[in-house]
Amino acid sequence: MNSTVTSAVVVGAVLGLGLYTLIRALMPTRRGAVLTIHRVDAVRARGGHASFTVPAPRPAGGDQRRSRLDVLRDRAGEWLAEAYLRRGWVQRSLRADLALLGRSWENFLATKLGLAAVGLVFGPAVFTGVHLLGIGESPFIPVWLSLAFAGLFFFLPDLEVRRDAAAKRRDFRRVVAAYLDLVAMSLAGGRGLPEALKAASEVSDGWALVRIRTALADARITGITQWQALGKLGDEVGVEELRDLSNSLALVADDGAKVRDSLGARAETMRGREMAEIEGGAGEKSQSMLIAQLLLCAGFLVFLIYPAGMRVFGGF
C-alpha cells in the first residue's frame, strides 16, 4: 500500500512539474532585445518599415478564398514563431535549411505543431490496441505514450528538413564550383569582376544559379557590392564556400589576376573536397555491402549446419 501511494505521489509530482514547465514556456513574456532585433532584420530584408504593434487583421475576402484549415495553420505558425522569438530560440541552422529548401519558417512550425497534436491522439490509440491484447493495465500508460509520441512527431520534420537540405546543399556546392570556373573564364576574357559575376550566373536557369542571380540583382537595388550579396546568400542558405568567397573577393577585388587565380584555386579545392566525399560515401556503401554479404553467408552456414548439429546433439 505504501509503495502504491509513493509511486502515485511521484507520478503526480512529475506531471505537475512538466505542466508547470510547459505553461511557463508558453506564457507570453516581455518583448526582449532578440525579438526586437529579429523583427528589424526581417522587415529590413523585406524592404519595409519596422512596426512593433499588433499585426493588422487580414482582409476577410482573402480568408474566405482560403480554407479554414490553411488560416488556422498560418495563425498557429505565427503564434509559435512569436513564442520561439520571445524565448530566444533563433534556430539559425534550421532556418538556413528551410531557406535553402524555399520553405516558410511559420509553415514549418505549424507542421510541427500539427504533428505533435496527432501524436497526442496516436499514443492512446496505440495503448488501446495493446490493451486489447491483454498487455498494459496502468492508467498512466496512455499519458506517457501521448507525451512520447507528441515529442517524437514534433521533431520528425526537423530530421526531414535536415536530410533534404543536406542533399540540396551538396548540389549547391557543385554548382558554386562550376560557377567559379565560369567567372574565372569571364575574367580571362577581359571582363570586370561585376560583369563576370553577372554573366556567369546567366548561363543556366537552374535553381542554384537563379538564387545567385537573384542575390546579385538585389545587390544592385540595395547598393551593396556583389561579393557582399554572395556572402549574405551564403549566410542565408548555410553554404560556407560563398561566405569565404565573399571575404576573399573583398580583399582582391581590384586585382583581376589575383581574383582569377583565387577563383580557380577555390574551385579546384571544392572539386577535390567533393571527390573526397564521394569516395568516402562509396567506401561506406562498400563496407555495408560487405557486412550484408557476411551476414548472408553466416545465415547460410547456420542453415546447413543446423540439421546435422541437431542430430549430433539430439543423440546425447
TrEMBL record:
Superkingdom in the source lineage: Bacteria
Lipid bilayer topology: Multi-pass membrane protein
Entry's localization field: Cell membrane
Keywords in alphabetical order: Cell membrane, Membrane, Transmembrane, Transmembrane helix
Residues in Type II secretion system protein GspF domain copies: 180-306
GO cellular component, as recorded: plasma membrane
Transmembrane segments annotated in the record for this chain: 6-23, 113-135, 141-159, 290-309
Keyword Transmembrane belongs to the record: yes
Predominant location: membrane
InterPro entries per UniProt: T2SS_GspF_dom (IPR018076)
Protein name: Type II secretion system protein
